[in-house]
Please model this.
Amino acid sequence: MVNEKDIVEIVSKQAKVEADAVKSETRLADLDLQSIDIVELVFAIEEKFDIEVPYAPSDQNAAGISFKTVGDIINAVNDLVAKQHPEKAG
Amino acid sequence: MNRVVITGLGVVSPLGNSVTEMAATLKSGRSAIGPLTNISTEGLLIKIGAEVRGFDPAAHFTDKQLPILDRCSQLALVAARQAVAQSGLGFRNGLGARTATILGSGVGGMNTLDESFHRIYAEGSKRAHPFTVPKLMISAPMSHITIEHGLTGPSFTVASACASATHAVGVAFQMVRSGAVDVAVTGGTEAVFTFGAIKGWEALRVMASETCRPFSKSRSGMVLGEGAAIFVLENRERALARGAAIVAEVAGCGMSSDAADIVLPSVDGAISAMTACLADAGLAPEDVDYINAHGTGTAANDVTETKAIHAAFGLHAKKVAVSSTKSMHGHALGAAGAIELAATVIAMREGFVPPTANYAEPDPECDLDYVPNEARPAEIRAAISNSFAFGGHNAVIAVRR
Model:
């Protein structure tokens, strides 16, 4: 499992808010994150966890990933780490 | 104010390396998007693009010229030769001083930059090649055109990302119209198929992995292209007096800035540019038979542009033919506006509307006539070409027969 605190920290840093203002159920829209901010957020997550996140907001029929809440990000990162780094999962 | 006409046009593009070839491809509706062949795609997520094919630099330049010409300069110089040849103008008789040279480019010599930095950072080379700087500067293609043709009038390069070439042609048009110069050599060039540049585009998450499907429900983003298109603009009186063949008239241009977001387009900015262009050209919406859309194939652009066309054209929006030729030649960034204006002028000359290729199914939010997949015979009296760039810089050019 990934450390949720790491993700909360990345999100709070991107949104320029205190870490305790970011909960699993917090909606990204409520953090005033614009599309380019979310792209940067995904980049930070990829760098932190050494994963590829198939995030493609320009894809109308995105088979990839979309995020509404911080919890969505945590779940997605857990899945992607398990798939891309099976040795770290568990 | 002077009227301004096009008396020369040259293209080196994924749709062909001459106006004749490009006209045939536009008519056929064939997309030039395919697997990248000029670079290795190992390690890249994006493996497709619209490349200029069959372009042999050695056929156009001497061994002495080649080392100092980045690909973006090579493409521009060859397109400029075609345009100047068609115009029938010579510039070394005094006309050079009355001629402006204004090009647009997004980033300039990307191949040179990429290769040079790779040598230094990756290969541990101690020194860069001495031509690195003069090859990579964004103004180099324009410089070489002035040198080759003896163009001693005002000269500069415009950078406004994906609207660069349209801004360049717009400013050139205004200079000829005002009488500041009699002739302008203008257009745009871009060549960004390098590993480093594509990595940058991948990271932005706006790229399609399959193909470019502007205005389709199943669109998945943009596809890069490359190329150059160059125009010779001329004072109409002057062109008529010397009996020059007139390709089309540049009727007007409109420019605006969103002043909002560095990547997301705004409806209002696009409306302002189109409305300003129509007013500048003295055209009513009903006079326009074709809109060459910016049409990148991203979720954001295509809906925004559709809304803006509705607002700018009112009831006529549903009647006017709108297509994105990026579906065929990809997004050539700083050269896009020039290649698309070339497509618009060719369509007007040859009496057809180029299609939006790869169109799959309608999107309820994109409800205009996008001329899906097949070119359509049509008499185009007047047309506009839209460019809406990152940064929110909008430029629109109107042409008429």
User: Anything to note?
Assistant: The mean pLDDT of chain B is 97. The interface with chain A takes residues 203-208, 216-222, 261-264, 297-300, 363 of chain B (CB under 8 Å). The first strand of chain B starts at residue 4 and ends at 12.
